[in-house]
Amino acid sequence: MKKSPYIVEIIGLAGTGKSTLSGALSQQNKNFLASERLGFKKPKHRLFFATQAFMLLPTFLRHIRIGRWLTRGDIKKMVYLNGWHRVLKRQGSHHDAIIIVDQGPIFKLATLYRFGPEELKDPGFYYWWDQLFEQWASTLDMVIWLDGIEDVLIERIISRDNWHLVKDLSPQEIRIFLSDYRLAYDYVMSRLISFADIPILRIDTSYQSPEDIMAEVLSSLERTDREKHFPKLSTNREIDAFT
Questions:
Q1: Which residues, in sequence order, are CB contacts of 220 under 8 Å at separation 6+?
Q2: What pLDDT is attached to residue 18?
Q3: Which domains, and CATH codes, for the chain?
């Protein structure tokens, strides 16, 4: 009988260290796998796009254009949310893996709800949203929710080398951006846990060392009912600073 993978999403505001933690966990041992990314240009994903876009056609037709058009990014998020849970479950089913998801369904739900077209909040879309929340609540096995003091996060965003959407904005504009996302995450998580009791590990990454954060995450994972996956999770591998 095929076993289901244990699916863990890492969420949090910019600067909390999501990608750093995701990368560290993915390299932890052979049972941890980074989730596959959906790509428009990947040949193996073209059939998925076509199938899910066709299934979403009635939803697209309800797009009454109160404001802007659906962007390519909006459509990609809708396609992902509509069917990517099946891909995640297949990805690790061959050896009962722990799938680590970064910028996954919760991130996409929050982004689409807060920054997507206004008509997606029209009552005509309530049933569609409910289906998504119920679907992903039953898919996710755990959420690691990173947060931090806004001043610390703003400094990390401004000072890090890699590009970010708000890196060149003023500190006050970045603060508004972070506040908007925090509210969006709060809303999405409240909807998800109304459908399922998802274990949530919340960590403030403001001043903890990456090693301490990693140890806390591994300890929490060891306490789950999937303990058989983690014969030894301690690591001496150096972890990059959380940015």
A1: 144, 199, 201
A2: 93
A3: 6-149+179-224 (3.40.50.300)
